[in-house]
Amino acid sequence: MMRSLTYLGCVLVVMGLAFWAYRENYATQASMGQMSQVQREIAGLREELGVLRAEWAFLNRPDRLSQLVDLNFERLQLVPVETGQVLDLGHVDYPKPPPPPDLPTDPLADPATQPELSEEPQP
Asked: Which domain holds residue 66?
């Protein structure tokens, strides 16, 4: 009788483990599918980024930009940058922060109630 209960318990444990492994297998396959979808999306975005970089390089050609400046000079009045227009950061006068307020050594003590210290020793 005890032997048959042991066999029945072992069979139930094996069936439970098989069911768990079955569920884990499908969960793993679903995760792998999501991962491959994300990788395809990343590859597409990288390709799109490459196209955008090429487009940016095409639009920022110096000859094209100089033509645009010439066409819109009356409205924008853009002129080339000269060496005298650029300053070193040491020449910039930044405002200085205000000095911190003087605080008493003991923030709980009132300066009016503190005894004055004298240099003479007291008896």
From this structure: 7-79
DSSP state at residue 51: H
Give Cα separations from 26 to 1, 32, 38, 103 (angstroms): 38, 10, 18, 68
In a domain, 52, yes or no: yes
pLDDT digits (tens, 9 = 90+) for 57-104: 999 999 999 899 889 988 988 888 888 788 788 888 888 888 887 766
What are the two backbone dihedrals, phi and then psi, of residue 34, each rounded to the nearest 5 degrees?
-65, -40
Q: Is the pTM of this model over 0.70?
A: no
User: Structure tokens of 117?
Assistant: 């210290």
Residue 78: CB atoms within 10 A of its CB come to: 13
Question: For position 44, what pLDDT does the model report?
Answer: 97
Task: Give the integer Cα–Cα distance in Å for 54 and 13.
Answer: 61
The verdict on residue 95 lying in a domain is no
Structural domains counted in the chain: 1
Assigned token pair, 80: 């080339």
Domain assignment present for 110? no
